[in-house]
Design goal:
6 helices, 17 strands, 297 residues, 30% strand, six-stranded mixed β-sheet, alpha+beta, binds guanosine-5'-diphosphate, six-stranded antiparallel β-barrel, Translation initiation factor IF-2
Length: 297
């Protein structure tokens, strides 16, 4: 059994918000994330080649931190939600100002609303001569989404992910919105969190990108993630910098699991290696039995 520690008010500390960026294809999600990441490299960080991993943290010049989930399309977000993982605190929805509110924009809005997380709109590509941010805001208003300029409560910011115009203001609005959520976690306990993605790397074995949501993960911890377990042998960020520990709202890639867990799997840390392994084995067994049963029917 997995016993979760019930935190007292005194044990809780403010944590960084976890953000997902969504929007219609080509409206500028990747460009926005790239711009934010390049502008907010933590001082003294080695400038290694940035590998694409599903999540990473940035530290703004103000010192404030934000964790971004960088999921291709909406699949991972939906997959995680389908598995009951509540990972995102806030969603940025990118809409290109030279286009319209599109089917995937509407889908992103529905996902955020279904998850009950606040939305901040980034009206992108305002550097383009044919950009018409007001048209986008009007289209949103017909969907009952009133942004602040239109007398509503939903935050929006005109930006250019290409020139960077408005991006700092966007992040300020995101942080303001996050502050109202009063996000807290207990950093002083065994880590608990969610798997973002995992793969088998030829040279390094199974690499799992996870998001620590509560507690602190340390090298040497025994972990159970979905059907897999193992001792955390190494941890690193998306730039390949080694890390010794990772607290709440920290995305981190780890080595040491005996397989690749699925996106949305929860992970837990155990004092005892055997217990983690036993539960992992039991879960694999149960799944095998289940698949045999489904094949029979
Ligand atoms: P994604 O599919 O939502 O990730 O969109 P991308 O970030 O790949 O952007 C799609 C295209 O729009 C690329 O050619 C970008 O260079 C371009 N683009 C993105 N943001 C801007 C912007 O603010 N201004 C201009 N002019 N082009 C942009």
């Amino acid at each position: 059994s997995i016993e979760e520690h019930i935190d007292t008010e005194a044990e809780l500390e403010t944590r960084a918000p976890i953000i997902t960026v969504m929007g219609h294809v080509d409206h500028g999600k990747t460009s926005l994330l790239d711009y934010i990441r390049e502008e907010n490299v933590i001082a003294g960080e080695s400038g290694g080649i940035t590998q694409h991993i599903g999540a990473y943290g940035v530290q703004l010049k103000s010192g404030q931190k934000i964790a971004f989930l960088d999921t291709p399309g909406h699949e991972a977000f939906t997959a995680m939600r389908a598995r009951g993982a509540q990972v995102t605190d806030l969603v940025i929805i990118v809409v290109a100002a030279d286009d319209d509110v599109m089917p995937q924009t509407k889908e992103a809005i529905s996902h955020a609303q279904a998850a009950g997380v606040p939305i901040v709109f980034a009206i992108n590509k305002i550097d383009k001569p044919n950009a018409n941010p007001d048209k986008i805001k009007e289209q949103l208003s017909t969907m009952n989404l009133l942004v602040e300029d239109w007398g509503g409560k939903i935050q929006s910011q005109d930006i250019s992910a290409k020139t960077g115009q408005g991006v700092d203001e966007l992040l300020e609005k995101v942080l303001l919105e996050a502050e109202m959520l009063d996000l807290k976690a207990n950093p002083n306990k065994n880590a608990v969190g969610t798997v973002v993605e995992a793969l088998l790397d030829k040279g390094r074995g199974y690499v799992s990108t996870i998001l620590v949501q509560e507690g602190t993960l340390k090298i040497g911890d025994y972990m159970l993630a979905g059907k897999h377990s193992g001792k955390v042998k190494a941890m690193f960020d998306e730039r390949g910098n080694n890390m010794q520990e990772a607290g709440p709202s920290t995305p981190v890639s780890i080595l040491g699991l005996d397989g690749a867990p699925q996106a949305g799997d929860r992970f837990h840390v155990f004092e005892d290696e055997k217990e983690a392994k036993q539960i992992a084995t039991k879960r694999s067994q149960l799944q095998r039995e289940q698949s045999v049963r489904t094949q029979r029917h």
